[in-house]
Design goal:
Elements: H1 2-30, H2 41-47, H3 52-61, H4 66-81, H5 90-96, H6 102-113, H7 117-125
Length: 131
């Protein structure tokens, strides 16, 4: 009986965490909050009517920190809008995507697609699709 109770709680927790992340993703995408460089976990939590601890727990349940979570949205934004950024400097591109600097954008591009920002921009200038 005790084992059944633990499994049930675990399933409920999983559904709850998934629901929190679903709400958070929706708000972040709809309001383009990922473009805000100083966005805090507590701000997003307030918008989805929960607290920072629950959002933090849901992120860690998925193996993510808040900045890693936001960076995925920012990289996605960069890739979707990359043709607009062709003539810009790396630092300006990073700022427009919500990153503090080009190093961070480069780090997450490498992490997600195994390509550096410089390589990505070179491939785009040659008319190739980097991703």
């Amino acid at each position: 009986m005790l084992l059944f109770g633990r499994l049930r709680k675990k399933r409920m927790k999983r559904k709850y965490n998934a629901a929190i992340l679903f709400k958070a993703s929706g708000v972040i995408l709809d309001k383009e909050l990922y473009l805000k460089r100083s966005l805090r976990c507590s701000e997003v939590a307030k918008l989805i009517c929960t607290n920072r601890t629950y959002l933090w727990e849901a992120l860690h349940w998925r193996g993510l920190g808040f900045q890693d979570y936001l960076s995925k949205f920012r990289v996605r934004h960069f890739i979707q809008n990359a043709p607009q950024y062709r003539s810009m400097e790396k630092e300006e591109i990073a700022e427009r995507c919500g990153f503090n600097d080009a190093k961070t954008l480069d780090k997450y591009l490498r992490q997600m697609f195994s390509i550096s920002l410089s390589e990505y921009l070179k491939m785009m200038s040659r008319g190739e699709n980097p991703t």
